[in-house]
Amino acid sequence: QLPLVESGGGVVQIGGSLRLSCYVSERTITAYAMAWFRQAPGKEREFVGTIGSNGIITVYADSVRGRFTISRVSAKNTVYLQMNSLKPEDTAVYYCAASDSWRTTFGSRVQSDYAQWGQGTQVTVSA
């Protein structure tokens, strides 16, 4: 089990910004592809974005591309999700996930490719 600790969620106004953090303990983050998923009330969990284990390749969902950015600071064993121009439909619990599978080397949108998950952090976008 790889402990993932998320932080940074909260309440923000429409058009505002938030930065989520996911700290990976016990192992070096460079061995893992990291991803963010989210689950809104009454909806299934969906892919937001991912950064491959090489730390270079990023893939985003169409709904967030151009507004959200994933980055990794290996020295801090932390991956970030910078969220700008937030919309009410971005309201959800955001989950960090990690994978050392070859399937995620260049990024994967598939939830089952990720074996390790954080506890989730709530993001609420309000008027």
Q: Which properties best describe this structure?
A:
46% strand; single chain; 11 strands; 7-stranded mixed β-sheet; mainly beta; 4-stranded antiparallel β-sheet; 127 residues; 0% helix
In total, the number of strands is 11
Largest sheet: 7 strands, mixed
Rg, alpha carbons: 13 Å
Helix vs. strand class: mainly beta
The pLDDT mean sits at 94
For the record, give the distance between the C-alpha atoms at the N and C termini, rounded to a whole number: 39 Å
Low-confidence stretches: none
Helix content: under 10%
The number of helical segments is: 0
* Broad shape: globular
Protein model, in words:
- With 127 residues, this protein is an all-beta fold.
- It has strands at residues 4-7, 10-13, 18-24, 33-39, 46-51, 58-60, 68-73, 78-83, 92-99, 116-117, 121-126.
- Strands 2, 4, 5, 6, 9, 10 and 11 form a seven-stranded mixed β-sheet that branches.
